[in-house]
Design brief:
alpha+beta; 2 domains
Length: 139
Amino acid sequence: MIHTGATYWPIIENTYKTTAQITGRIKQEGFVMRTIVLINSSLIVLTILLLAYLLLPVNSITGAMTALAAEEPHCYLQTNNATKPLAMQSCCYYAQQQLTCDTQENGNISCYTGQHTQTYVVNAAGADYCQKNGYYVAQ
C-alpha cells in the first residue's frame, strides 16, 4: 500500500484551507503584536516617569508651595490709632464674626463690620490656620 503525503499530514492540510484564512490569521497575529508593543512602550514611559519622580528633589517640583508653607500665620487688630498683634485662636474667632472680609493687594485679608471700626487683618497662612481649625475667614 502506497501512502500519499495527505494521509500522513492531515492536521497541516486541514488547518489552512484557503488563502483568505491564511491572510486572516496573519492579520490577527499582527494585531496581537502591535498591542503587545504598545503595552510595553507604555510601561517603559511609566517607568521613566516614576524614576524621574524618585530621583528629582521634591522642592523642584512643588516650587512656590514650599514658600507658602514657610510663611508664619499672623493676625493684627487695627483700630483708629493703633495696630496690635493677636493670638491666632482669638483672631480667627473674632474675624469670623465680622460682616465683610476683603483681600488686600499684599494678600492679607481684612475683616471688619463697618468703615471706622476695628479691623482684623490675617495673612494667607493665618487664613489657612483658621480654616484648618474650623473657622471661616472669607478670602
